């Protein structure tokens, strides 16, 4: 075993030490930390639904009816009526024959790879994919290939050289640290040309992208035929917890039979499924949340550019400000916090060396005034 104390000391010296912050209370877009009220720009609650009264009430009523825990795995006695109803509603919403609930997005990605890939297969992944996608590919028995970020030409070259019986392309739809989009139409065409399957992780697009919030497929006018394997999480735009995989009847049945992260874990609470069903209804009825979010993104980007901040090409709620060195990003985060604004510093290895950043995330629960306060704090911190 490595010298743990020495490794931790080295991490601290490199400004890469991770420390948890304990939130004592939540008040809308504000959090209370050590008695201090902070305006939060770190959350993935993109539509502001985590505290929506309908969602909270559904959770409370679900707990009163079904209890707190599911008490077992889905394949034992843990699959309750709310789980089943949620799966059907999610499948209908994204336009697939079926959907399957997983406890987390990480487990869903691992479950897809473990069930579908063997030593005769090859998996191709974008270099900036989320860690769960990369780990899914690496942990499978398949040959693992990475292509440069959004470089479809390099992907074509890799696919052309593949001698595997099965080729699977796995990609984020919106990249979690940069906020940019995968070139999904080009990836669909590439997969079709090389007889490969395409799987997308729409964690940051589901509920947000598209006029009706149906995610990346709606945004790019794609179908379930174009993208046969679709995964999204429920803890971001929906403000709840968990994930799901959508696909064909055969895909979902295969996951039920062979996906170890699905088979060998306790099902999420049925009360949580009830809350998620309520949240999904809000996503479909309150389109103003997506419209307001787009207005906030535009306001922030315009103001940040006037301040001369180094932004990335993102039209999503994820708005990174690049500082480069970890120490600089940490210092900027601390200066914002001193002004009552919370934006976490993101450092290697989460992002490549030399690209440490503040990762601003916007929510429909924010107001224009909140964004203006953030911009003022950034100007002071600069």
N- to C-terminal separation? 43 Å
User: Which structural category fits the helices and strands?
Assistant: alpha/beta
Q: Which fold name corresponds to the CATH topology of the domain at 53-285?
A: Aspartate Aminotransferase, domain 2
What Rg do the Cα atoms give? 21 Å
Largest sheet: 7 strands, mixed
Order of helices and strands: HEEEHHHEHEHEHEHEHEEHHHHEHEEEH
Helix fraction bin: 40-55%
Ranges where pLDDT stays below 50 over 5 or more residues in a row are none
Q: Based on the structure given, which CATH architecture of the domain at 53-285 is correct?
A: 3-Layer(aba) Sandwich
State the total count of DSSP E strands. 14
The CATH homologous superfamily of the domain at 53-285 corresponds to Type I PLP-dependent aspartate aminotransferase-like (Major domain)
What is the CATH class of the domain at 53-285?
Answer: Alpha Beta
Proportion of strand residues: 15-25%
| Envelope shape | globular
Tally of contiguous helical segments: 15
Query: Could you report the average pLDDT, rounded to the nearest whole number?
Result: 96
Strand order of the largest sheet: 4-10-9-8-7-5-6
Label this structure with key terms.
alpha/beta; Aspartate Aminotransferase, domain 2; about 375 residues; four-stranded mixed β-sheet; 15 helices; seven-stranded mixed β-sheet; single chain
């Amino acid at each position: 075993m490595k010298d743990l104390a020495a490794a931790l000391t080295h991490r601290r010296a490199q400004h890469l030490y991770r420390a948890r912050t304990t939130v004592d209370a939540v008040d809308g877009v504000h959090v209370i930390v050590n008695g201090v009220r902070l305006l939060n720009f770190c959350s993935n609650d993109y539509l502001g639904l985590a505290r929506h009264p309908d969602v909270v009430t559904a959770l409370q009523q679900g707990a009163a009816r079904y209890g707190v825990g599911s008490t077992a795995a889905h394949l034992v006695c843990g699959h309750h009526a709310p789980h089943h109803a949620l799966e059907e509603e999610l499948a209908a919403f994204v336009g697939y024959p079926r959907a399957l609930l997983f406890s987390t997005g990480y487990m869903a990605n691992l479950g897809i790879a473990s069930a579908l890939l063997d030593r005769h297969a090859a998996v191709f992944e974008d270099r900036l994919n989320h860690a769960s996608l990369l780990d899914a590919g690496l942990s499978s028995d398949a040959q693992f290939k990475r292509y440069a970020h959004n470089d479809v030409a390099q992907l074509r070259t890799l696919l052309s050289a593949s001698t595997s019986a099965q080729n699977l392309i796995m990609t984020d739809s919106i990249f979690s640290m940069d906020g940019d989009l995968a070139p999904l139409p080009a990836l669909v065409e590439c997969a079709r040309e090389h007889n490969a399957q395409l799987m997308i992780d729409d964690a940051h697009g589901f509920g947000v992208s598209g006029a009706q919030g149906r995610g990346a497929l709606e945004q790019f006018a794609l179908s379930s035929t174009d993208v046969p394997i679709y995964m999204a999480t429920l803890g971001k735009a929906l403000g709840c917890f968990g994930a799901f995989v959508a696909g064909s009847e055969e895909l979902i049945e295969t996951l039920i039979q062979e996906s170890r992260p699905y088979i060998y874990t306790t099902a999420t609470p049925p009360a949580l499924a009830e809350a998620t069903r309520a949240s999904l209804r809000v996503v479909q009825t309150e389109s103003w949340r997506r419209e307001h979010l787009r207005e906030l993104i535009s306001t922030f980007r315009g103001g940040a550019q006037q301040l001369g901040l180094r932004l990335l090409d993102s039209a999503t709620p994820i708005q990174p400000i690049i500082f480069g060195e970890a120490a600089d990003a940490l210092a900027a985060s601390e200066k914002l916090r001193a002004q009552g604004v919370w934006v976490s510093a993101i450092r290697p290895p989460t992002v490549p060396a030399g690209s440490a950043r503040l990762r601003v995330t916007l929510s429909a629960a924010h107001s224009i005034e909140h964004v203006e306060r953030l911009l003022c704090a950034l100007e002071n911190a600069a």
